[in-house]
Design goal:
Blueprint lengths: L9 E2 L10 E2 L32 H11 L12 E10 L18 E10 L14 E9 L2 E8 L12 H8 L15 H8 L5 H7 L14 E2 L4 E4 L5 E10 L8 H10 L3 H11 L5 E9 L1 H5 L20 E10 L4 H6 L12 E3 L3 H18 L83 H8 L3 H17 L3 H14 L1 H11 L35 E6 L5 H14 L2 E6 L5 E2 L5 E2 L3 E2 L10 E5 L2 H7 L3 H12 L3 E4 L4 H4 L10 E3 L3 H9 L6 H5 L1
Parallel strand pairs: 13-14, 13-18, 14-17, 18-19, 19-20
Antiparallel strand pairs: 1-2, 3-4, 3-11, 4-5, 5-6, 7-9, 8-9, 8-12, 9-10, 10-11, 15-16
Helix pairs in contact: 2-3, 3-12, 4-10, 11-13, 12-13, 14-18
The structure holds CIS-heme D hydroxychlorin gamma-spirolactone 17R, 18S (HDE).
Length: about 700
């Protein structure tokens, strides 16, 4: 706590209307430094009379409060940020002269903001949605912002369509709902008329749109960028973030229930993980290729609706990012951070991707309207941490007090008291003269090479496990069932047949509709070999960083509790103690165990698995409480690991369990470890029961 915020102790005398007034800290002042005598009462004409206009203390306080809010981001309004560092682990000077990729072990500070896209600032954390993945690297060569998403493709190919896309997904214009949801008419109307969106929509209907934690998702730069080395040689590149925590998603039913139980689920998870020292970490990877290779592919690398399969160009790890500090002040940092895809440093450059090109205009423009001044770069979270000099001056909220006479260049005012000011330098950013084909005429057209909209969604679908495919089918059925316009549903079924006929059939069946005739594709799709990297379930699960909800009762076996706590801490797992009452319980060794949560406030959807450590009489009594019933039933229905002491048996009858390897009796440390080891997985066979 800062000095300024420390509570003070000596209240002023009773009976003055200021009974709660505290004195004794640093003097409380107005914004202009005048010490305030009374922070409780307005200045009035007599004790019961009208308030006076001259009360500058009151007016300043209310005036500032009235203007506390700034416009939220048009998209990505809801987000969570954290500070950390990027460390270069595998320098690549042969490909880029970018300052941060030159030396093994070299670190630069970063600020990372992870967000949902469609919802407004106060919306829930767990809707079905794309997640933003924006990183600001404060390098010695200036700020580099890699402003990506947790999906490697985008809905549209050309920036011209962005406002239409966003209008379609946001709450419908006449009614103002639904909030943070794609399951409505206008979204699917637009999508079904935009075949180029099909690939992204497959990602959106997949488990990728329901991350279990922001720490457990991949990130992608999405566009193709250009790298340039010190010799002026260029390559093309795609950026990837690979989470050390592994990738995991929630089930749909779980996501829905989490949003009721804790609409700040992801924000809190990030906060708690960092406080607990489980620092979220990602590896930064690059797919590097050249234009010659790109020309031979059945897709255009400038088309943001396409991936480059990792099997074709492996992701080469160049560094790691660790987020080790939650902001001190959410507004000053997470809200005011302004990412700009135009923030780029020597060694990295833009490609001609028409979506990226449009973004190069949009972000600078949006920051002026959000932060209110062209001087937003002076806000500490946005300011570069390297020296910065130019002749830009003045403007609203200018905080630099410049000295000197010349605010132009060239100038010749040099003398001891009057430096000439900064000059362009050889190390300055130069646009790379790379070799992409550019037409000679000014055209408003879409390149022919962007015309295949279905090969890659097919690749995505066919690369998933059977379970993941079923989730995609269920998501389409859910969303299109929320659509009220039948012609929109039918048009979507028409498009889906170009992706995979079985997928289209299953969705039609789920909707109870006959499959309409297919909609002709602009270009006939081809079938590519499946890519395992596109599936989540084909990856190895990672236990560290998971959470366990432990329900305990009075008299519960202390040894089991301690053993499980031990096993969890060794595996990097966070435990929350849950009891009937937040005051906690007394274990059978006489020790008092305070609870983190009351059971109704900590449903099992918030955890990766649960442990039930109860005495039999307590289990019988608790089994009658609906919050306890939901705790156990949901954990079972969401295919989670359930560890239980022998006394907890009466609760198991709530589950219809026929016994499976995710139902674990706890009576030794080894069984505690077995439970912990299951936390990053689900018991899929249970779902077919
Ligand atoms: Fe953004 N996008 N975007 N976007 N975007 C914004 O900028 C925009 C696109 C992304 O945590 C806005 O500061 C246009 C792709 C992230 O603060 C706005 C187009 C990708 C964030 C804007 C795109 C993104 C934004 C809203 C099409 C993934 C949040 C407020 C040409 C590669 C950054 C703001 C943060 C935010 C415009 C497409 C990612 C309005 C015009 C593609 C992660 O300027």
């Amino acid at each position: 706590m800062s000095e300024q915020n420390k509570p003070t102790t000596s209240p002023i005398p009773q009976g003055t209307g200021g009974e709660t007034q505290q004195r004794g800290g640093k003097p409380l002042t107005t914004n202009h430094g005048v010490a305030i005598f009374d922070n409780q009462n307005s200045l009035t004409m007599g004790a019961r009379g009208p308030t006076l206009l001259e009360d500058f203390v009151l007016r300043e306080k209310i005036f500032h409060f009235d203007h506390e809010r700034i416009p939220e981001r048009i998209v990505h309004a809801r987000g969570t940020g954290a500070h950390g560092y990027f460390e270069c682990t595998h320098p690549i000077p042969e490909f880029t002269k970018a300052a941060l990729l030159q030396k093994k072990g070299a670190r630069v500070p970063v600020f990372c903001r992870l967000s949902t896209v469609a919802g407004s600032k106060g919306s829930k954390d767990t809707p079905r949605d794309v997640r933003g993945f924006a990183v600001k690297f404060y390098t010695e060569a200036g700020n580099w912002d890699l402003v990506g998403n947790n999906m490697p493709v985008f809905f549209i190919q050309d920036a011209m369509k962005f406002p239409d896309l966003v209008h379609a997904v946001k709450p419908e214009a006449d009614r103002g709902f639904p909030q943070a949801a794609s399951a409505h008419d206008t979204f699917w109307d637009f999508i079904s008329l935009m075949p180029e969106s099909t690939h992204m929509v497959l990602w959106l209907m997949s488990d990728r749109a329901l991350p279990r934690s922001l720490r457990m998702m991949e990130g992608f730069g999405v566009h193709t960028f250009v790298l340039e080395n010190a010799q002026g040689e260029t390559k093309l590149v795609k950026f990837h973030w690979k989470p050390t925590q592994g990738i995991q998603s929630t089930l749909w039913d779980e996501a829905v229930k989490i949003s009721g139980a804790d609409s700040d689920y992801h924000r809190r998870d990030m906060f708690e993980a960092i406080q607990a020292g489980h620092y979220p970490e990602w590896q930064l990877g690059v797919q590097i290729f050249d234009e010659e290779w790109a020309r031979q592919q059945p897709y255009d690398v400038l088309d943001a609706t396409k991936i480059i399969p990792e099997e074709d160009v492996p992701v080469q790890i160049v560094g790691r990012m660790v987020l080790d500090k939650y902001p001190d002040n959410f507004f000053a940092e997470t809200e005011q951070v302004a990412f700009l895809p135009t923030n780029i440093i020597p060694g990295i450059d833009f490609s001609n991707d028409p979506l990226l090109q449009g973004r190069l205009f949009s972000y600078l423009d949006t920051q002026k309207s959000r932060l209110g001044t062209t001087n937003f770069h002076q806000i500490p979270i946005n300011a570069p941490k390297c020296p910065m000099h130019n002749f830009q001056r003045d403007g609203m909220m200018q905080t630099h007090q410049f000295t000197g006479r010349a605010t132009y260049e060239p100038n010749s005012l040099a003398n001891v008291n009057e430096p000439t000011g900064p000059r362009a330098s050889e190390q300055g950013f130069q646009t790379v003269a790379h070799q992409e084909e550019v037409g000679t005429a000014k055209l408003r057209v879409r390149a022919e090479t962007f015309a295949d909209h279905f090969t890659q969604p097919r690749l995505f679908y066919q690369s998933q496990t059977v379970i993941e495919q079923t989730h995609i089918v269920e998501a389409f059925v859910f969303e299109l069932s929320k659509v009220q316009l039948n012609h929109v549903r039918l048009r979507m079924l028409g498009q889906l047949q170009n992706v995979d006929i079985e997928l289209a059939r299953r969705v039609a069946e789920g909707l109870g509709l006959d499959l309409p005739p297919p909609i002709a594709a602009a270009k006939e799709p081809i079938t590519m070999p499946p890519s395992d990297a596109l599936s989540i379930l084909k990856r190895a699960p990672v236990v560290a960083g998971r959470s366990l909800g432990m329900l305990v009762s009075n008299g519960a076996e202390a040894k089991l509790v301690y053993e499980l706590q031990d096993a969890a801490s060794q595996a990097g797992v966070m435990i929350k103690i849950i009891a009937e009452k937040v005051g906690g319980v007394t274990l059978n060794d006489g020790q008092h165990l305070p609870a983190d949560e009351k059971v109704a406030g900590a449903p099992s959807v918030l955890f990766d698995g649960i442990a039930l450590i109860l005495t039999e009489p307590e289990a019988k009594r608790l089994a009658k409480q609906s919050a306890v019933q939901d705790f156990v039933r949901d954990a079972f229905a969401h295919l989670k690991a359930i560890g239980y002491s022998s006394g907890a048996q009466p609760l198991l009858s709530l589950t219809q369990s026929r016994g499976d390897e995710f139902m674990i009796t706890l009576n030794s440390k080894a069984q505690g470890i077995a439970l912990i080891n299951k936390l990053a997985s689900r018991c899929w066979p249970r779902s077919s029961d």
